[in-house]
Amino acid sequence: MQRLIEFDQALKTLLVSIDSDVGTTKLNLSECLGRILAEDVTSLIDIPGFDNSQVDGYAARSSEVSVGKEFVVSQRIPAGSNPTNLEKGTVARIFTGAEPPSGADCIIMQEDVKIIGEQKVEVLKSAGVGENIRKRACDLKTGEVFFKKGRQLSSADIGLCASVGRVSMQVYEKITVGVFSTGDELKQPGEKLERGQLFDSNRPMIINCVKSMGINCIDFGCLPDRLEPTVKSLKSASEKVDAIITCGGVSVGEEDHLKDAVQELGELKLWKINMKPGKPFAYGKLGKSAYLGLPGNPVSAWVTFSLLCRPFILKLNGKELGKTLFTMARTNFDYENRNSRREFLRVTIDLKGNLQLYGRQNSQILSSICFCDGLIEVSPKQTIKAGENVKFYNFSSIG
Ligand code: AMP
Ligand code: MG
Question: How far is the CA of 92 from the centre of ligand 1 (A)?
C-alpha cells in the first residue's frame, strides 16, 4: 500500500512548489478591498501629523496646575484651528483632535474641571506632563514602511492607507481558478433526481469559497466518470486557468479517473494524505496550471479546500501567508484519537468561548460544516482532556 503523506508535509510541498509570476496593476484605494499588495507601502506623512488632544478638556502648563486652583480660560481651540501661545497662568478650552497651544504640556479632562464663571474653571484633578496629548508620529513616521508586499488588504488596512494620503496601490492581478465536479450520480439543482442520484453541492460550495477569497473563478461543470472526456476537459481547462480544482473521482475505485487523467496529461506530485477527513487529496501540475483534486465527500472537500487549497491559491496569487492557519483554543471535552490518521474534528464554540465537540463527524454530513465554527486538529494517538488547549482552525478565518 502507498505510504500516506503527513498533513504538514503535504502543505509544505504545496507551498514551496509555487513560483508564480503574477502581473500587477494600479488600483484606486476604493477598489483595493481583498486585493494583495504588490508593493511595500510607505507612510507619506507623520501620523498623527501634529501633537493633538486626546480628550475634550483644558490645555495647561502642568507645573502651574494643582487641585483647587482657579484659572481664566484664555482661548478656545476647536479641532482644525490654529492656536496662539498659551498665556501664562491661564488654560485654554480644547477639543479632541485639536493642536495644543505652545506653552501647554498637558490636557486636563473636562470631567476633572468645575466651571465656576463665564471664562473661569477650578481644577478638580491635576494632570502631569504629556497627559492626554497624542504625540506627533507616535503611530507612523514619514518614510516608514507599514505594509509589506504580499499583504491582503482588509477594511482597516484601507483606512490606514487613506490616513497617510494614499490614492492608489499597486496590487497583483487576480489569478483564475477553474472548478469541476465529477460523478455520474450527480444532478444539478432544478433537474429531476432519479434513483440513487443526488444534487451536486461541492461545485457551488467550492466556487463560492474561491470567489470569497477575491479570486476569479470559472465554473467548468460536472465531468462524467469516464477517463476520455476527463482528459479532454482537463487539458482544455489547463490552457485557460492558473489552477484547476476537481471534486470527487480521486479515490481508488474503478470509477475514479482523475488520478489517471492527471498522470496522462501532466504530473501527479502528491496523492493521499494521512488525514481524516480528506485522505484521497491529490496535487499535481497540468501544463502551466496547478491541479488540486479534492475528495468527493462534501465535508472532505470542504476540509481539504480550507486547509490545503486555500493557502495554496492565496500564495499563488502573491499573498504572504501568516505564521499559522490555527490558533490555540480550549476544549470542554475529553477525546482520544485511536486512529493512525490525523483527525480534523468539527467543533462549535460554547457560551464560555470553549470548544465543544460536534455530535456528527461523518464526512458526508455537509450540514455539520454550516452548524460548526471550525475544526480542531488531533494527532494520531493523541488524547485530549477537557480544559486543554488544542489547535483550532476557525471557519471565519479559513472558511
Ligand atoms: P467520490 O470521491 O467521487 O467517490 O465521491 C465520494 C462521495 O461523495 C460519493 O458519495 C459521492 O456521491 C459524493 N460526491 C462526490 N461529488 C459530489 C458533489 N459534487 N456533490 C455532492 N456529493 C458528491
Ligand atoms: Mg465519484
Answer: 73
Contacts 24+ apart (CB under 8 A), 360-365: 362/299, 363/276, 363/277, 363/295, 363/297, 363/298, 363/299, 363/300, 364/297, 364/298, 364/299, 365/299
Q: Percentage of residues in the chain with pLDDT exceeding 70?
A: 99
Answer yes or no: is the C-beta of 297 below 6 A from any ligand 1 atom: yes
pLDDT of residue 399: 64
Q: Which residue has the cell 498623527?
A: 48
Residue 117 banded pLDDT, cuts 50, 70, 90 = very high
d(C-alpha 261, C-alpha 263), whole Å? 5
Rounded CA gap, 265 and 262, in Å? 5
Which residues have a beta carbon within 5 Å of ligand 2, which is an ion? 183, 248-249, 296
CATH topology classification for 24-46+141-172? Molybdopterin biosynthesis moea protein, domain 2 (3.90.105)
Residue given cell 470631567 in the structure block: 111
Q: Is the CB of 181 under 6 A from ligand 1?
A: yes
133 — pLDDT class (breaks 50, 70, 90)? very high
pLDDT of residue 20 exceeding 90: no
d(CA 332, CA 392): 13
Peptide bond connecting 298 to the previous residue in cis, omega within 30 degrees of 0: no
Condensed to tens digits (0 to 9), the pLDDT of residues 237-248 reads 999 999 999 999
Q: Cα(221) to centroid of ligand 2, in Å?
A: 14
Q: Which CATH number fits domain 52-134: 2.170.190.11, 2.60.120.20, 3.30.390.50, 2.40.30.10?
A: 2.170.190.11
For ligand 1, mutation pick of 184, 193, 195, 198 (most atoms within 8 Å of CB): 198
pLDDT digits (tens, 9 = 90+) for 24-54: 999 999 999 999 999 999 999 999 999 999 9
Ligand 1, residue 203: give the atom nearest the CA: 19
CA of 256 to the centre of ligand 2 (A): 6
Q: Where along the chain do its domains lie?
A: 7-22+174-316, 24-46+141-172, 52-134, 327-398
Determine the distance separating the centroid of ligand 2 and the alpha carbon of 49, expressed in angstroms: 61
Ligand with minimal distance to 278 CA: 1
Is the CB of residue 225 below 6 angstroms from any atom belonging to ligand 1?
Answer: no
233 vs 222: CA distance, rounded Å = 10
